[in-house]
Each structure stands twice: as C-alpha cells, then as structure tokens.
Amino acid sequence: MKDIEDLIQKAVELQNNGLVTGQIADELNVSRETVVWLLTRSKKEEITPAPKDISVNWNSIGKSAKRLHNISLALCDMVLETLEKINAEVDVVVGVAANGIPLASMIAYELGADLAIYHRKGQESIHAGHKGTISRNFGSVAGKNCIIVDDVITTGSTSMEVIERLREMDAKPRLVVVLVDKKGADMIANIPIQSLVRVVRVD
Questions:
Q1: Which of 55, 83, 107, 126 stands 20 to 30 A from 21 (CA)?
Q2: CA gap 108, 144 in Å, rounded
Q3: Contact 75, 178 (CB under 8 A)
Q4: Distances from the Cα of 72 to the Cαs of 68, 132, 178, in angstroms?
Q5: CA pair distance 58, 88, nearest whole angstrom
Q6: Do 19 and 108 lie in a common domain?
C-alpha cells in the first residue's frame, strides 16, 4: 500500500507544480485514467475501482548517463535485428518528448542517424484539431525512414499519435522501440514494436 500512497503523493505534487493529467501520466509512466484515480483518491472522494495499470520507475537508469548508454546499446541491437528482418533502413531516430529523448539521442548516435524530437499534442488542449509536432531545431523527417523511441508504452495512444503525424509529414515510420511495453502488442498501426521488457498481466 505504501507504493500507492507514494504514487498519490507524487501525482499531487506534480499537479500542484502545474502539470496536467497527460504530463503527470508521462512522468509517472502510468495511464491518464490511473492519474485521475490517484488524484481522486488523494481528495478522499468516493473511489472507483483502481484501474488495471502498472507503474514503471526507471529512475535508476535515467539518472545515470552510463546506464542510459548501455541500455541504448541493447535497444540498438534490437533495432538492427528488426530492421534486417523487415528489410528497412533508418535515417532518423524520433525521440518522444520528454522521456524518449535521452535514449533517442544515444541511439541516433550509435546508428549514425539524424535525431528528431516529437512534442506531443496537449491532451487537455482546447483546440480539437491541435496536433503534436516535430521540433524545427532538430532533424527533418519528410521522406525519411524513421524509428520512434519512447520510454514506456501504456495504451499505445502516444505511439499511434506519432506514427500518424509522421505519415502526414510524408515520413516512413518503420519501428517503435521502448524500454517497457505494458500494452503487450507486437504491432501498432502496422508498425512493429520492440521493447526490452514486456509486462503481461495475468488475471
């Protein structure tokens, strides 16, 4: 129960610091539904049943550049193996802000590819047509083979958003690679998913 109380406290602190639900979900590596549940529970309101979710804390990796580098090498190995199987190349590594960026930059370096950064659309945006964007300060994706790098897949909505946006920009998404896959799918929008760890819930 202490772990849940810790998550509630962290969610409340992040909300008090101005983060919105989607940002808190990214920071805690849980779904948005779980964030709502945590915040509701913190207010001692009538509590709905807890969502089926798993919190992933990879701080022991994230705080060490050496560990990030070693993890990126393992991810590169998986990327190269998968690209060989599907007979594809990589021109650009797309890091999903914010947690995918450190891994993406190291993977791009190892693969000799360009680096692009994807800023997600705001989940709480009042603009229905608002879309995420590729930062102009980094690599271009138009007409290029891309791999997408993030830390965790929970529902797959972020990966789907990035894939759709890349296709709209005439890019060619080839692979999604993450540290942890909580969704448990092999493909998303016909793009293969590779992860170092796959979490499978047994009910």
A1: 107
A2: 14
A3: no
A4: 6, 25, 10
A5: 30
A6: no
> Distance from CA of residue 20 to its chain's centroid?
17
pLDDT value at residue 128? 52
Q: Is residue 49 part of a domain?
A: no
Q: Do 25 and 125 belong to one domain?
A: no
Q: Tell me which residue range forms the domain holding 155.
A: 59-198
Q: Over 60: is that where the pLDDT of 157 sits?
A: yes
> In sequence order, what are the residues at sequence separation of 6 or more whose Cβ sits closer than 8 angstroms to the Cβ of residue 29?
55, 56, 57, 58, 99, 151, 152, 154, 180
Chain mean position to CA 178: 7
Q: What share of the chain is helix, strand, coil (3-state, %, to 5)?
A: 40, 20, 40
Closest CA to 86 of 201, 192, 170: 192
